[in-house]
Amino acid sequence: MRAVRDDPAVEAAPRPLGRTLSVPLGAACVVLSAGWWPLAIGGAVLTVAGTVAILPAGTARLRRGTPAALGAMVLFAAGYFGADSLITVLLTSGFRMSLGQAAVVLSAAPLGWAVTSLLVTRCASAFPAAGLSLTALGTAVPAVELAAGGSFGVVLGAWTVAGIGVGLAYPSLYIRATTAGSSGFTATELATAVITAECVGQLLGRAVGGTLSSAGTTGGLVASYVLFALALIAAAGAASRTSTAG
User: Fold this and answer.
1) Quick one: CATH architecture of 61-239?
2) In terms of pTM, does the model score above 0.70?
């Protein structure tokens, strides 16, 4: 606080309060919908509207450059962290694995993310779309395997691949989302926007996934993971627009 207290105030247009507050209101509607689809869908729409109001102009349209990177961050967080929040339920309730097996699978993705990020530090700028595509694949496989009665080894491999994909994509995606370039956004605006994008994506993915999986059957889990994979495919598409060239 002492370091920044003498900085000049940034003159920025105020965010519309009503649409901003629609983020927590919409998330609450999804969480409290108790399986009533109109309320869940309405809550998701409210959350998206509030997110669009908060993030810089062009993010919802995935405008090439920084806005597309922020949009990709929202989609990535919704898909990956939504899937991560339900992986233990998927393994124990869906695949009937033991807690020990679930712990091994659960650890695979963050380990793959960490090691891959270290290995690609010098050339991470080349991998955001490819990495997110790998994460989408690693997220979709458990849904297919659950429907087909798959094995521990396949799910472990798939979730490891999902983490490796994040390790390839995240460093570059974060840099592109926080680098103004010729976008005209201030550093403060981008620093706030990337945190908002990731947090709201996580919130939305976990809320929607939790609502779908509460159906009480494995069909809800399959639907959740299909939705997460689609969000990650969309994130990969958005990540391909993060370069300002072309």
Assistant:
1) Up-down Bundle (1.20)
2) yes
- Total length of the chain: 246
Residue ranges in 92-186 assigned as alpha helix (H): 99-119, 128-148, 152-178
Sign of the torsion formed by the C-alpha atoms of 146, 210, 108 and 134: positive
Q: Output the DSSP codes for 216-237.
A: SSHHHHHHHHHHHHHHHHHHHH
Could you give the count of Cα atoms lying within 13 Å of 28 in the half-sphere of its Cβ?
A: 5
71: tokens are: 């949009």
Average pLDDT of the chain to the nearest whole number: 84
One-letter amino acid identity for 49?
A
Tokens of 232: 């990650």
The string of pLDDT tens digits covering residues 150-161 is: 788 899 999 999
Q: Please state, in angstroms and rounded to a whole number, the distance separating the CA atoms of residues 132 and 239.
A: 8
Measured CA to CA, the distance from residue 77 to residue 30 in angstroms comes to 17
- Give CA 127 to chain center in angstroms: 17
Q: Which of 203, 225, 173 is nearest to 66 (CA)?
A: 173
DSSP annotation string for 86-102 = HHHHIIIIIS---HHHH
First-to-last C-alpha distance (Å) of the chain: 42
